[in-house]
Design a protein that fits this description.
Helix content: 55-70%
Radius of gyration: 25 Å
Number of strands: 8
Shape: flat
Number of domains: 2
Number of helices: 15
Structural class: alpha/beta
Largest sheet: 8 strands, mixed
CATH class of the largest domain: Alpha Beta
CATH architecture of the largest domain: 3-Layer(aba) Sandwich
Oligomer: single chain
Length: 439
Amino acid sequence: MIWHILRYWISFVLPVFYKRIQGRNIKNIQGENPVIIAMNHPNAFTDPILITHLSYPVKVKYLARGDAFKPGFAAWFLSRLGIVPIFRIQDGGREGLKKNDDAYRMVNNLLKKKNKIIVFAEGLCIQERRLRPLKKGVSRMIFGAYDYLGENNNLTVVPVGINYSQPDKFRSTAFYNFGEPIPVKDYIAEYRENPAKANNNFLQILAPKMKELVTHINNPENDQTVLHVEIICKKDRLKELGLTFRDLHNDFIVLKELTEKVNHAEAEHPEILSEFKTKAKIYFDTLKKNKLRDWLFSPRQKYKISPLHLFLRTLLLILGFPAFIIALVGNFFPYKLTEKLTRKIVKNKEFYSSFAIALGMIFFMLNYVLWFAITYSLSDNVISPLLLVSTILACSWIGLYYYPFIKKTVGIYRIIKNKTLYNDLFEKRKELVSLINKF
């Protein structure tokens, strides 16, 4: 019951925090067979929440750090959500590891009931665009589950790659890339002959399958470089290929291609990559200093840098302004409260979106209840408060798009006002594109 209530409740909040949430080949975990889902883990509690949102009505369960299961309400509540505690040596020491026998038994019993279980195969949560080495316990758990279920069962492992544009940023995107199921029975003969070798071999098979599903930057020192290349080239490349940016799988294809270009440049053309890094830093620092964005200097957007286009956008801003004010007044306090408390509580960026979404669920619900109650106390019918709350909700949705529209319009105004700066940055960007083409 708790799971179903939270699932419907959170489904209203997730599309607000994330601009787009999409999954590809979700059907691979939606059959009748037991499934172990092997995922990377960049974004704390948000990762399993989003996969549950995407795969509904399938109820996905997952393993989580055992030290979160404090005796009392926390342990009861987490277990009701279908979360199984698993201990790493850094969490609970050797005593904690002993408790994992209970965790494996719970996993096996859930799989016997044809459940789907998420295993975070890297064994840690960290926000980066790469796959870390997989933990040996993953393959041991998989083969142990197969043994428990009995011979000739249909246990499969489905690799999943999670790809966020910016995991901890409001109005970013999340793409879940589901791979092809791996039947465990295909590896049982080897496991019967040599369990230790089979465990290692299975991880060597699973790891590249997971790696294919994420954008993998070989060198962490190139993370910022890949982001710069993405900002400059991604939308132009999508257009060249005739792909729509609204489909996050297309987005993934292009970003994977651009990431591999940087990986290749590091190995084959380090001098060009170094030159790009130096010039990109100057370019993006200048953008930041002048409160501008790269899209303004794309040749594809040149038609927008005109007084006529600015005038038309200003008219649209005037037309949408009343709706924006209603959204601002109706949601200011819960938004600010969520933002301030999240920044105060959260020290690690991996937990930012999880806390923001959880607090937002509470504060925004209370906000709309309060608006309803106040209006109802001042009116003699239920229609007025319902109409008010519905109006605020509708205007809030408009506001999500109105505010970025304001920022883009202001950016166009700044550029039209300073043609010299525009021409300088336009040329700098053209030079960066030329360097990228040499990668």
